[in-house]
């Protein structure tokens, strides 16, 4: 059982000084998973407990699995580009659309009722 549980286990990436959000303790199905308030990690207690302080200074202790690390605003946009140039298409204008005359032609096939409807009066 330990080997099965350890397959998906991973170390927490939360460190002292990180900005985190905490999970809702009693949430309804319409509430988001995490509270919008931001907390700063003030201390780690062992490998599973984290101490978080909000901007008012109140400290909360939670299991590290209830804390989600947020990326810092300076780190946003610093990812390496993929190196693939993507051309954004411009919107089509009425002069750009060319419809060939063959596609506007109606079918000249004769339509007949199936045999099972021969005795019905169809409009």
How would you describe this structure to a colleague?
The protein is mostly beta strands. It contains one helix and five strands; from the N terminus they run αβββββ. It has one helix spanning 2-6; strands at 19-22, 39-45, 49-53, 59-63, 67-69. It has a five-stranded antiparallel beta sheet with strand order 4-3-2-1-5, with no helix packed on it. The radius of gyration is 31 Å and the shape is elongated. The termini are far apart. 3% of the residues are buried. The mean pLDDT is 79.
User: What is the CA-atom radius of gyration, in angstroms?
Assistant: 31 Å
Give, in order, the helices and strands.
Answer: HEEEEE
Approximately how much beta-strand content do the residues carry?
Answer: 15-25%
Low-confidence stretches: none
| Side-by-side strand order of the widest sheet | 4-3-2-1-5
Structural class: mainly beta
Give the distance, in angstroms, between the N- and C-terminal Cα atoms.
71 Å
Shape: elongated
* Overall helicity: under 10%
Number of helices: 1
- Give a quick account of the main beta sheet: strands, pairing sense, barrel closure: 5 strands, antiparallel
Q: Average pLDDT, to the nearest integer?
A: 79
DSSP, total strands: 5
